[in-house]
Amino acid sequence: MKKSALQIARAAYHPQLPIVLTGGVKMKEGEPTQSAGDQEEIKKLFPNTYGLPEIIFEKTSATGSAKPVNVGVILSGGQAPGGHNVISGLFDGIKHLHKDSKLYGFLMGPGGLVDHQYKELTADIIDEYRNTGGFDIIGSGRTKLETKEQFDKGLEILRELDITALVIIGGDDSNTNAAILAEYYKAIGAGVQVIGVPKTIDGDLKNNVIETSFGFDTATKVYSEVIGNIQRDCNSSKKYWHFIKLMGRSASHIALECALQCQPNVCIISEEVEAKDMTLEEVVDYIADAVVARSEQGLNYGVVLIPEGLIEFIPAVKKLIAELNDLLAAKASEFAEIASEDQRDWVISNLTPDCAATYQSLPAGVARQLTLDRDPHGNVQVSLIETEKLLSEMVGKRLEVLAAEGKYEGKYSTMHHFFGYEGRCADPSNFDANYCYGLGYTAACLIASGVTGYMSSLRNLTFAPVNWVAGGIPITMMMNMERRNGHVKPVIRKALVELDGAPFLKFAKQRDEWKVGTCYTYPGPIQYFGPAEICDQPSLTLVYEQKRRKY
Amino acid sequence: MKKSALQIARAAYHPQLPIVLTGGVKMKEGEPTQSAGDQEEIKKLFPNTYGLPEIIFEKTSATGSAKPVNVGVILSGGQAPGGHNVISGLFDGIKHLHKDSKLYGFLMGPGGLVDHQYKELTADIIDEYRNTGGFDIIGSGRTKLETKEQFDKGLEILRELDITALVIIGGDDSNTNAAILAEYYKAIGAGVQVIGVPKTIDGDLKNNVIETSFGFDTATKVYSEVIGNIQRDCNSSKKYWHFIKLMGRSASHIALECALQCQPNVCIISEEVEAKDMTLEEVVDYIADAVVARSEQGLNYGVVLIPEGLIEFIPAVKKLIAELNDLLAAKASEFAEIASEDQRDWVISNLTPDCAATYQSLPAGVARQLTLDRDPHGNVQVSLIETEKLLSEMVGKRLEVLAAEGKYEGKYSTMHHFFGYEGRCADPSNFDANYCYGLGYTAACLIASGVTGYMSSLRNLTFAPVNWVAGGIPITMMMNMERRNGHVKPVIRKALVELDGAPFLKFAKQRDEWKVGTCYTYPGPIQYFGPAEICDQPSLTLVYEQKRRKY
């Protein structure tokens, strides 16, 4: 592998550890905890790992461990910048405990545990991946660890390798499953601790004890860089409206952070659309209003940010999709007989009036996509819908109507972008490099402390890393019961954008000005070597959220 | 405007000037020059500006000018990183000549000269834009300065503002027109010098006297950053083939530079496709071969780079497009009568057998696009064709055939990207910041020297900026006669990728290894503040080209 100059330089970067982790640590336990909701049910499901205390580490002179520990690590789900640093922090942490400790990586996600695919991560391998993006050190995968069979199969290889602790780096689902696995291994006396690490660029794994998930910082900075560049482009040529879709299906944190960083003309927040029960037409009207308002000032250009999951947050569209799923499942053979040119009418006549109206409002291409492209379960494949094109086309139609009414005289040309894969494997920002390394190192401390069912935790993140507070949070503390795929399950509550939260309120206060004025900010590329105000700033979401939170 | 931390820090950056420009300069003239081709015809068309000598500036103790000079500046065509630095270098240069010199910017491109739209660029304005991306200081536009009426109209405002020199920052077309304008103003004794500056991210404005155009360095670094990130992503999840289209319609320099930086599995070079007279099927087979070869090693993922202009370089497709343009123009009314479901058959029956076969080989959507979407002149809109999707779909079809023959057993899932607008307005790299500032400053020196019809020039660009050689190149020296839009015209010869040039040969030597192996390099984001080997490296294209060139 030919390394770039930046790869070589970053390999030498020493992540900053919280001062408390720079020597020996001792564990300080807080009060017993409760789950976020449904306490009785969660308690019943997790008899061995419920109600554990929060843990904070404090400095002590004692250091190291009498005997080595063998640890397994798994990267679960979509990539996020910094995963390699979690692993290198974990490696350094267990080596600090005892020089003969060993780290095994299970390959291609949780499936590697079940299928016994692994490799030992030696110092040479670890050094190749320090401070780099990607999950390529051991790969990642989306297999869900959910069944007793998987747990037992995993235990075979854990025993074979004498692994007594497993670190699962993943999002809310993977950490939920880590808690279930911890409970199971504890219940059967397997002698394997399970520790989770909060990962996801989407930023939806956070709560009053987890300040942020890793990767969000870097990914949003990469997206903000290219959004800023596009803003500067459209402010130079002054002839295009750019519709930019951003990754994040379940929550709009990414779009919101990018909006705070870049100050585009329009940013749609899915959670607000849902809360206000907006129709697709209302979203379209909102954007068209911005286009009209700017055109009245001679500004026939702009930038619109759209969260990837928007379409599923629009109540009417959500209802339409559900009804289409039912209809096409129930009348699959009848539908298959309909000639393609008659399908549209057939669908309309078989839907309830509300849904039929929503269906008719969609551009023909999207409507066709909703009935034709279905996943193996027969469901509409929402992720295939190019929401950015859908909206720009519908805005164009709306503008035609307004023009015919004499209410719009501007020009309207559009460009489309989708940013997601560009940011998931970027080299971690200094923030994520430090945060991840610290999370991995803290996981090693949790292992040394003998606990299980905990998530590695660093807090006080808007301060310099030396001041960060390291500890562990019982995963059950973040859980409640929710309906997922037709079953009520214990899950970690997903953090959506709070409409009364500081980041959204900051945005809401300024967006009218951004809409008509041209208030673009250009963040530029992530910097690693310059002054702290450029290189070491956390996301604005974190800064605004933490300002009002006492720790 | 709220500035980002990076914007604020970069505003304070002092571009490095060649040592020769740091005091007074004197002009050293070389031998009279000849045009690149068609010397007799070019000489006849440019009687007043043909055969001028190359100019090199040398240091002298004398400095400044007896009287102030008023200069006009125009940004022409697509944006390129560094345009603002050309303007700030020009501003500082003419202020160095005399503190009362004035700089006027014509707004929204060459049209601003003709329509008398301008603003004076004062020190306050200039300081706001130093080292920033974009052309937003005065905007850009694509009006072509070609006619006597435009020249005369422009002269009115130049006289009104007492402007005696005009700097045109643009690509090959704009510099061709700058030469024509210089010749015209000289011929009529207008007393206005015209100086060109070589701009284009496409990298196709270069020759044996112009080493590179500005913006290419930064834009390719932005694209390489995100391509690298995508490579790391696909190397982590190991499940997608990413088809990435890159800006650059006329030449493949951008794709080639990104390939040299990132080492993707496949990169198509349009110039090679044309030289080898490859069919679309052969291009598809070439990519499919890579997919099959990798799948045989269990690698069902990869990255393919595609230059935006590819489709027009495939001789058979080029011929088809030309024939379709003629056919649909000649039989427009007949075609309009054909029912949409019969159009395909009608088109096939009206094409020559070769073109009909090419047409039939295209996916239905692309074929429809070729007949339906036409520009105001009735021509097929090639730029609307999503070449990245066209190729990935055709590769998929090819793989189905191979699978049926038992020659392919892999999985094939695809993702598509197009990078262009993301890079055109990025903050200029240190290289482009220095190069552009120097080009602008050199333009001021050319103005002080009283010459016209020259392009501002800096050479020795792979050395540190202090060692760069500053001077001027007669624009006619780069010209030859070519057929463009049906007319034979004097134009600057466009630089395509040379298949016997060092950059392509470097690529060609390694590509077989990159195809099957996974040899990805991850350049990461542009850095401004770190060690020189990260922050100050010119493009590999420039490095490889200059290695074999003596200066």
From TrEMBL, chains A, B:
Gene Ontology biological process terms, A to Z: fructose 6-phosphate metabolic process; response to glucose
Catalytic activity annotation: beta-D-fructose 6-phosphate + diphosphate = beta-D-fructose 1,6-bisphosphate + phosphate + H(+)
Sequence ranges assigned to domain Phosphofructokinase in this UniProt record: 70-335
A cellular component annotation (GO) from this entry: cytosol
Family: Belongs to the phosphofructokinase type A (PFKA) family. PPi-dependent PFK group II subfamily. Clade 'Long' sub-subfamily.
Function: Catalyzes the phosphorylation of D-fructose 6-phosphate, the first committing step of glycolysis. Uses inorganic phosphate (PPi) as phosphoryl donor instead of ATP like common ATP-dependent phosphofructokinases (ATP-PFKs), which renders the reaction reversible, and can thus function both in glycolysis and gluconeogenesis. Consistently, PPi-PFK can replace the enzymes of both the forward (ATP-PFK) and reverse (fructose-bisphosphatase (FBPase)) reactions.
UniProt protein name: Pyrophosphate--fructose 6-phosphate 1-phosphotransferase
Organism for this UniProt entry: Duncaniella freteri
